[in-house]
């Protein structure tokens, strides 16, 4: 008798062999609750990786809002609808007053695609500066600027990447002011490079967490001079809040506010619907006015009444459960505990992060800072075997990426750190 195909084999048959799958031994998850995930054998995992279930997996308030609205009405944004407008009003109130309009979409990629279209349409220019080693999504225009996966020869003339400061490797005795000057000089060089090939600047697009780049802690005021140069060249600042938004940094609702910048356009996604496909573009009203008067933009699913009810429920939970304050206090505790672990294990070269987003950089030698890429892979897999889920980022794939749902507590942090301690001791 033929043995039945495993779920993995069935997956290969229908999704192909290259659809990304986490861990050497893939996880078959069947249920989630708060910061916990459960596999098909009933084993429990601490989720210290996923930012989409922002207020916790299957949060009852979000599930209830979704179910109630799904049972009442689900249309789209081309009818008058109280739920959609009330949500837009509440969300926009969290921004600088200059950012007064929102366009709803379904994914972060779509949000960045639309932001690029708005920037290009409103400036009349094509050039986009993005960060080296950035990820912004999977549509054709966004993939072009996503320097993480798109090699230089495929980027085309309208993309110019610039490096972001790496606090662990690149300070070289420079002051914060000198680093901001260096960043501004790189922006200037990118604009010059565009001009040399007849391209004018439409905008500077950056992830406010610089997440794929390795979560560098950039100095205060880092963006100030660069943004002025962008504006003087006729371009716009586009802040991608897909990872840094919705209070991830604890101190502020938005990563750009934590960086001390007011963008012209903001994109958001992942945590916005706590797993429901909801994303958006918030922009200056004059930009939205110009763009929408010149192009007929509408989105069938983006911001429909069910999505709006879910989005509202996420904002309500963030406020009721004081999750930004939790990110600040628990976040500081996680950093403190990871720094203590760094004293014990030489492989941890650097620990950094803000709010509920942490990076621990693994090196084979603290002096040369040689990346411990192979070891980092082993650590991630060993953590998974011990029931704690994290991932890795950075140019050398040697940085532990720890970004749990926002209700992560000190007890969860203790489990995360003691498991990591155990894994590092047996490496
Ligand atoms: C910073 C950033 N922007 C945009 C995206 C794309 O979002 P989505 O996968 O929802 O299209 C991602 C996804 O990982 C991201 O991390």
What is the strand and helix layout of this fold?
Blueprint: H1 7-15, E1 29-33, E2 36-39, E3 44-47, H2 60-70, H3 82-92, E4 101-105, H4 108-123, E5 127-131, H5 140-145, E6 159-162, H6 176-196, E7 201-207, H7 224-232, E8 236-240, H8 255-258, E9 265-268, E10 279-283, H9 285-294, H10 305-320, H11 323-344, E11 348-354, E12 357-365, E13 370-371, H12 373-385, E14 388-389, E15 391-393, E16 399-402, H13 410-425
Parallel strand pairs: 3-14, 5-6, 5-7, 7-8, 8-9
Antiparallel strand pairs: 1-2, 2-3, 4-10, 9-10, 11-12, 12-13, 12-16, 15-16
Helix pairs in contact: 2-10, 3-10, 4-9, 6-7, 11-13
The chain binds pyridoxal-5'-phosphate.
Pyridoxal-5'-phosphate binds at residues 107-109, 112, 135-138, 207, 211, 240, 242-243, 269-270.
Key terms for this structure?
single chain; 427 residues; alpha/beta; seven-stranded mixed sheet; five-stranded antiparallel sheet; 13 helices; 38% helix; binds pyridoxal-5'-phosphate
Question: Care to describe what's here?
Answer:
- By secondary structure, the protein is α/β, with parallel strands linked by helices.
- Helix content is 38%, strand content 18%.
- The protein contains 13 helices and 16 strands.
- It has a seven-stranded mixed sheet, sandwiched between helices. Strands 11, 12, 13, 15 and 16 form a five-stranded antiparallel sheet that branches. A four-stranded mixed sheet has the order 1-2-3-14.
- Strand 5, helix 5 and strand 6 form a beta-alpha-beta unit.
- The longest helix has 22 residues.
- The protein is globular and about 60 Å long.
């Amino acid at each position: 008798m033929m043995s039945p195909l495993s779920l993995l084999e069935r997956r290969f048959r229908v999704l192909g062999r290259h659809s990304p799958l986490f861990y050497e031994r893939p996880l078959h998850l069947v249920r989630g609750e708060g910061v916990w995930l459960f596999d098909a054998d009933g084993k429990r995992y601490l989720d210290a990786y996923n930012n989409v279930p922002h207020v916790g997996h299957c949060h009852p308030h979000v599930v209830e809002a979704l179910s109630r609205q799904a049972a009442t009405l689900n249309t789209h944004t081309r009818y008058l609808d109280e739920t959609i407008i009330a949500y837009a009003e509440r969300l926009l109130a969290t921004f600088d007053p200059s950012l007064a309009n929102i366009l709803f979409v379904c994914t972060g990629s779509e949000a960045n695609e639309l932001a690029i279209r708005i920037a290009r349409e409103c400036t009349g220019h094509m050039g986009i500066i993005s960060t080296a080693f950035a990820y912004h999504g999977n549509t054709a225009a966004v993939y072009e600027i996503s320097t993480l996966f798109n090699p230089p020869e495929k980027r085309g003339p309208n993309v110019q990447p610039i490096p972001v400061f790496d606090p662990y490797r690149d300070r070289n005795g420079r002051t914060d002011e000198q680093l901001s000057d260096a960043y501004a000089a790189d922006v200037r060089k990118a604009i010059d490079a565009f001009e040399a090939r007849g391209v004018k600047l439409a905008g500077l697009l950056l992830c406010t967490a610089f997440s794929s780049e390795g979560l560098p802690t950039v100095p205060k005021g880092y963006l100030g001079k660069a943004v002025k140069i962008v504006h003087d060249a006729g371009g716009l600042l586009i802040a991608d809040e897909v990872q840094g938004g919705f209070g991830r940094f604890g101190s502020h609702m938005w990563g750009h506010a934590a960086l001390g910048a007011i963008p012209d356009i903001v994109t958001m996604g992942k945590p916005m619907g706590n797993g429901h496909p909801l994303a958006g573009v918030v922009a200056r009203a004059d930009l939205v006015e110009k763009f929408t008067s010149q192009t007929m933009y509408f989105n069938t699913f983006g911001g429909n009444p069910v999505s709006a009810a879910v989005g509202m429920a996420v904002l309500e939970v963030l406020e009721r459960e004081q999750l930004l304050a939790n990110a600040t206090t628990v976040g500081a505790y996680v950093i403190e505990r990871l720094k203590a672990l760094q004293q014990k294990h030489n492989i941890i070269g650097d620990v950094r992060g803000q709010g509920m987003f942490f990076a621990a950089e693994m090196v084979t030698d603290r002096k040369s800072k040689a990346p411990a890429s192979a070891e980092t892979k082993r650590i991630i897999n060993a953590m998974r075997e011990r029931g704690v889920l994290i991932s890795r980022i950075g140019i050398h794939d040697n940085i532990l990426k720890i970004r749990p749902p926002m209700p992560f507590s000190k007890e969860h942090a203790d489990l995360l750190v003691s498991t990591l301690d155990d894994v590092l001791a047996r490496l």
